[in-house]
Amino acid sequence: MPAHAKKEDLLRDIIAHAKEYGFVFPSSEIYDGLGAVYDYGQNGAALKMHIRDFWWRAMVQMNENIAGIDAAIFMHPETWKASGHVDAFNDPLVDNKDSKKRYRADVLVEDYIQKIETKIEKEISKARKRFGESFDEAVFRETNNRVLEYGKRIGEIRERLKEALERSDLPEIGKLIADLEIACPVSGSRNWTEVRQFNLMFDTKLGSVSDDAGTIYLRPETAQGIFVNFLNVYKTGRMKVPFGIAQTGKAFRNEIVARQFIFRMREFEQMEMQYFVKPGTEMEWYGYWKAQRLKWHHAIGIPESSYRVHDHIKLAHYANAACDIEFDFPMGFKELEGIHSRTDFDLKQHEKHTGKKLQYFDSDTNESYVPYVVETSIGLDRMVLAVLTHALTREKLEDGSERLVLRIAPPLAPVKCAVLPLVNKDGLPEKGREMMDRLKVDTECQFDAKDSIGKRYRRHDAIGTPYALTVDHQSLEDDTVTIRERDSMQQERIAIGEAGKVITDKTSMRNLLERL
Ligand code: ATP
User: Which listed residue, of 105, 155, 270, 465, carries a Cα 20 to 30 Å from 207's Cα?
Assistant: First the structure.
């Protein structure tokens, strides 16, 4: 029960908490940071590693027919012509002539829509106060004239924007901004340049070549590293369709709108799996992976109500089905993962650009074909934000005090177990150290003897440590310790000899994998 009245407060709290407790820092902060680039601190790096590990195991370890690879960030530049990124990986941008600030034109319109949505929320909360217990939000939304009017307006603006984006009609997007009288949030003026296309790929030069021929790109997605290795993995792994190739790794996009913390970054990490299937069977596999990926999300204990699936009605020209798994972020429901049925578009494009056959030979039917692809693509950083959003809880305790606790699924927690001598004397720290030395070969634990025991429990609650083992005077006599559970704060005594097994059992990744 997160006690955050307003969602904006939640994002602010998450950013502050992430910084204070070593999860996420602005990049090169001592130089005042770099826009939309972040560093993971000691706890964030561990959390991220465990989420990545859970994904990797769920894909590669749990599926005999999925192979994991690690392709390079730099790829032959022709790759990005084949994939369509050189020509079409663009966002529409617009500059304000007075503030010199640059915006994504579609986001300016989306923000305008958001303001209307806030007005609807205000109407609802006013009515809720007025009608009290008997208030029915659904009925109010369907019948209140003002709310209906706002809703209609939102629908019209969305439709105009969607059509303009689909036709890449930049003047129309500019006209929409003018018609809505959208002003620059910085200068307050409506003095805009025309809307232009902006390619999101970062480029750089390879080796000593300085002309255009030497231009290479930092990959904007990991997927192409999989497509270009299709033959390699198929042949060396002796794979049979259907089979998958999975990888995790950095991707780079020169995002124009750089905000919302680690939701939209210029350097981020993706976890992608391309599943190669026989043409004609792709819808079956698309359904399978959609269900499978939702199971993965639900396995970590975030309630299903925090997720929603948005099926795409209008599809990219090469796709025959697509959906987003959206998460209820502090900014509202937004894309966390995409699942796409991409037909044979990518492999065929690479065939065209390389002149090589990228086909599968089916020995049962003696025929060769270019497989169809169903992909699952999730942003690791967005998943970290989803976990933090769900986990950060401000709790009132019985004694009236408050505690901040991160309710992270134990297998994902940065530290699995805190080893805490009750007092920093009487031989307790030595006993604790001894225990720590035995435990640390099994799991990630931290020894902490400074400050009162209450403060130390709070520190570990705040980074999500699921268990604390406390060494007290009785431990010296009978080799037992108390084990405290983070969420319930319940304590019980266990033998020191059993502690390693108890903690590793309770925090094992197996607990999550068994739910898939
Ligand atoms: P958006 O519409 O939010 O820009 P997208 O549709 O361009 O996302 P995809 O190209 O489908 O995203 O990438 C797959 C996944 O990679 C996304 O679902 C998201 O989790 C992640 N991702 C994409 N761009 C970013 C980014 N700039 N920062 C962090 N994660 C990202």
Answer: 270
